[in-house]
Amino acid sequence: MPRVSAKRQITLPVDQCREVGIRPGDHFRSFVADGRITIVPMVSGSAKGCLRDLKGDPRLSDEDSLRSALEESGL
Questions:
Q1: 3-state class of 65 per DSSP?
Q2: What percent of the chain has a predicted confidence (pLDDT) above 90?
Q3: Which pTM does this prediction carry?
């Protein structure tokens, strides 16, 4: 059974790493939902094309676009 070290490090079981393709040196994301920690390996290129259909407004500068997004989000 893995244990949390004093530095909050966790050793993942080898069989679980193999099952999801995690290798030494790989990057991952972790998040908490419903009181559980989930670890998701990052896959290079997984976001490729996700903004392909997004159309920008060429009349807005980067600064104007950022300001607009922040105002819409309430920040």
A1: helix
A2: 36
A3: 0.50
